[in-house]
Design brief:
About 10% of the residues lie in helices and about 45% in strands. Strands 1-29-55-54-53 form a five-stranded antiparallel sheet, with no helix packed on it.
Length: about 850
């Protein structure tokens, strides 16, 4: 009876499976001012702008910022953006007014002749098209309006059709959609009179006069959108294709010379070619008002009721089963390149070469099922409902109840079966399962190497030798003491690969007997590895808890790491298995099945530009121009840089590497976009900064900003010379008048003190405390006290705890001659000692002990 159930399940018909994109949704919770979004635009700095019925918003990869009437908008209902060749972006409102912002955003400014728009356009003649020529004459077209409205740069209307009635198509009147090309900008409008018109046109028949025209780049095709249909025409007006749909089209957007996007009301969106073939579909049932492909290749969709949707990597798709996200345990393929997916709920899914899906087996006890296929024999082994099933074309059930954890890769001897407390072996040619080894622990995986069996367990790696002995390998190498969940053998490289929990991928070279690990330090996404898949001699795939890595070995023994994770657009970071079929990578995770082209794993380009820019500079907390940094006074020594790089794919994960040449000896990294330098001494500096993806090795482009802080006037050469001259004059006249002739010692001491004050140079001691760089003047230090590997740095105002041995302190301080060691635990600053004796010194009323071995030093202390 049970066998009949299995056979019936094998012939379960194909179910409804779909392939979806991975969307990120931006709504009210993410900072959008409204879910009703009409338009989208990306500026030259990479920032994405949204037009909504509650104002304007933008997104820089970190946060969404909203703007309303209080920020300079003329209305909160913004319908569209109209970017111009000079970088200016006009915004049209529901009230038929215009305002604009520039490429380097400094706020919103109203169009100065909005009063003309208000008096010329009726309330239903919504602005549709805006063009600003080089003389700043403004061209405007609107729905329900014939001809162009042209306002020159002095506010005079130089062209306008005053006829109020729109053509009546029921009375046989004809209207034409006219387009003109200005500075790569397509400007279009509707007219009923071509007598004075020379541009190209096409007749339109829609009753309300709503028309949209786009030009496909580098081609002869234009696309026209009416209220009910879409047509593709060449530039002579000849109809190429007419696209009709039961849903009303809302927007068309060009993609390339032969493809464009259509957004529908309640019908989602589609990418179609010039023949009307649908290439890809998106967001079924949504009302898509606009579409954008950003500079990093991401797709953006604005909707009428659901905010904004974003696809980070359109080449990655999710294979869904009735929107199920059941965890997947295993993947395997057969000789026909059909994929079998084993789910944790016991279901086995089959995906054929045409991407069609069917349920291959369906468990009724909700326990894990998985398969392994042997390409040499053509047989597959299925673990299903705690039983083994061997099949080639038709299933052959063999009732051998067992609790199985994993199948090994097939070899000539068969398949090793990892179980609780032992290992069995199954010959796919027909012999019964054979219990090979009884073990006192759980077996995660097993793998043959010659006649030895390597065993992965929670306690580490064991080897069961051909002589029947079990040996733990952790005594041979401590790496083998980690939990191992998968073992695979690369025959051509003669290497064993171990998926470890804690030490990444462990590689055991059987030729040299060397053991090494590829870990997170080498670029692996995580040191917790779930599965290893060998594609060929030089390429292996590593499934980790933080994404999927591909390792490519070269002939010189080196390797290259590439990969994908959720931050690159994957469905989930916890990858359980991987399979490659015809350059398509199938990726199993705890949230379901996804696939991507293998080309995505070729590695990023080194020339990635994240549009790093300096947004603001503050000197002593006051915003200043960057040119002002070349001539700062000595007391203008607190400088703050506000920088920003934009990568919508990284979503705030970019790191900034920076260095202040002239002060820093090493590079620092931070995710903070505010970088501050306090109490900079006078001198010349160069601030260098670059934006980097922490997961990618790349050549970064640096911003370099020179800084010059002038010396204080008492350190300027003119002041020093003047002071010396004045001093010499004073000395001369004093001696001339014999005022100080009665006490030459006092005169000499006075001169020494004056000269010392003039030549005195301020020194600083720099150290880290609580992750911060701190710099203090050395002449404020009273004494230093040892505390193991730390010292207490006692100053006039505060005590600091610094990780430093007391013996290293004098070597690191810039004025070591000013200090004296009086005890193995104490160093004092000479000029701070108030009282001294053979047993103690007193500084600011605090007694410090003197050890006998330092008495000579105390005797020589002169103060």
């Amino acid at each position: 009876m049970k066998q009949k159930i299995v056979l019936l399940l094998f012939f379960i018909p194909y179910l409804l499976f779909s392939q979806e994109y991975i969307y990120k949704e931006f709504g009210l919770n993410e900072g959008l001012p409204s879910l009703q979004v009409y338009n989208i635009y990306q500026d030259k700095n990479g920032i994405v702008w949204f037009a909504t019925d509650r104002g304007v918003a933008n997104y820089n990869g970190y946060e969404i910022r909203s703007f309303g009437v209080k920020d300079g908008l003329l209305s909160n209902v913004i319908l569209s953006f109209h970017p111009q060749a000079n970088g200016r972006v006009y915004c049209s409102t529901f009230d038929n007014t215009l305002f604009y912002f520039d490429a380097d955003f400094k706020g919103f400014k109203p169009y100065k002749y909005n009063s003309i728009l208000n008096s010329t356009l009726r309330h239903n003649q919504t602005i549709q098209n805006v063009y600003l020529d080089k003389e700043e004459n403004l061209y405007i077209s609107s729905i329900f309006k014939l001809g162009r409205l042209v306002i020159n740069n002095k506010g005079a209307v130089v062209e306008n059709i005053k006829r109020k009635a729109f053509p009546s198509f029921t009375n046989g009147e004809i209207a034409y959609a006219v387009y003109e090309k200005y500075d790569k900008t397509l400007f279009y409008y509707v007219t009923d009179n071509l007598s004075k018109q020379s541009p190209q046109f096409v007749s339109i028949l829609n009753r309300d006069g709503k028309i949209e025209i786009i030009e496909l780049p580098d081609s002869e095709y234009l696309v026209y959108r009416n209220e009910n249909d879409i047509s593709v025409r060449n530039k002579s007006g000849k109809l190429i294709t007419k696209i009709e749909n039961s849903f009303r089209p809302l927007v068309i957007k060009p993609i390339d010379s032969s493809h464009f996007f259509i957004g529908y009301l309640f019908g989602g969106g589609s990418i179609v070619d010039i023949k009307g073939n649908v290439i890809a579909s998106f967001l079924k049932n949504q009302s898509i008002t606009n579409f954008l492909i950003d500079r990093e290749g991401g797709y953006w969709f604005t909707t009428l009721y659901s905010g904004v949707f974003y696809i980070k990597e359109p080449k990655i798709r999710v294979y869904t089963q009735n929107n199920s996200d059941i965890p997947i345990y295993s993947l395997t393929k057969n000789n026909n390149n059909e994929l079998f997916v084993g789910y944790d709920n016991g279901r086995i899914l089959k995906i054929d070469r045409n991407n069609n899906s069917s349920v291959y087996y369906n468990s009724n006890n909700m326990t894990r099922s998985f398969m392994e296929h042997d390409p040499k024999t053509g047989y597959s082994l299925l673990f299903y409902q705690n039983q083994f099933i061997k099949n080639k074309k038709q299933p052959k059930q063999e009732s051998h109840p067992a609790y199985v954890l994993k199948f090994s890769e097939p070899i000539e001897k068969g398949i090793l079966v990892s179980q609780l407390g032992g290992i069995s072996q199954i010959d796919l040619n027909g012999s019964e399962p054979e219990r090979l080894i009884e073990l006192p622990f759980r077996v995660q995986d097993a793998c043959y190497w010659k006649n030895d069996i390597y065993i992965g367990s929670p306690q580490g790696v064991y080897v069961y030798t051909s002589k029947g002995k079990l040996k733990a390998l952790k005594n041979q190498n401590k790496l083998f003491g980690n939990r191992i969940d998968d073992i695979d053998y690369n025959e051509k490289r003669n290497e064993l690969y171990f998926a470890s929990l804690g030490q990444g991928l462990i590689i055991y070279d059987k030729t040299t007997e060397k053991v090494r690990a590829i870990t997170k330090k080498d670029g692996l996404y995580s040191d917790i590895v779930n599965e290893v898949h060998i594609e060929n001699e030089s390429e292996i795939w590593v499934c980790t808890n933080s994404g999927l890595n591909k390792i490519t070995f070269s002939t010189d023994g080196k390797f290259k790491l590439t990969g994908l994770k959720s931050s690159n657009g994957l469905l989930n970071d916890g990858i359980s298995d991987v399979e490659i079929i015809n350059d398509r990578v199938w990726i199993a995770s705890k949230k379901g099945l996804a696939y991507a082209p293998k080309e995505l794993f070729e590695g990023p380009k080194n020339s990635t530009d994240y549009l790093l820019r300096l947004k603001q500079v503050f000197v002593n907390e006051k915003e200043t121009a960057i040119g002002y940094l070349n001539g700062l006074s000595y007391d203008e020594n607190r400088i703050e840089f506000n920088v920003e790089a934009v990568s919508l794919k990284n979503e705030g994960r970019l790191e900034y590497s920076y260095k202040l040449e002239g002060l820093d000896k090493k590079w620092y990294s931070t995710k903070n976009r505010k970088i501050t330098f306090s109490s900079l001494p006078h001198g010349d500096y160069v601030f260098k900064i670059a934006a980097k993806d922490p997961n990618v090795i790349q050549n970064a482009s640096f911003l370099e900003i020179p800084i010059h802080i002038k010396a204080p006037f008492w350190k300027e050469i003119w002041f020093i010379i003047l002071s010396v001259v004045i001093l010499l004059c004073i000395v001369y006249f004093f001696f001339k008048l014999r005022v100080l002739s009665y006490n030459k010692d006092i005169t000499r001491e006075l001169l020494r003190i004056l000269v010392r004050k003039i030549k005195r140079k301020e020194n600083y001691f720099v150290f880290k405390e609580s992750g911060k760089d701190i710099r203090i003047k050395t002449d404020t230090i009273l004494y230093v006290k040892s505390s193991g590997n730390y010292i207490e740095l006692v100053t006039e105002n505060k005590t600091y705890v610094v990780r430093c041995k007391i013996g290293d302190f004098i070597d690191e301080t810039p004025d070591s001659l000013e200090y004296l060691r009086i005890h193995r635990s104490y160093i004092v600053r000479i000029d701070k000692v108030d009282t001294k004796s053979k047993t103690e010194v007193i500084i600011r009323g605090e007694k410090l002990p003197v050890s006998a071995s330092y008495n000579d030093a105390i005797d020589n202390l002169v103060f």
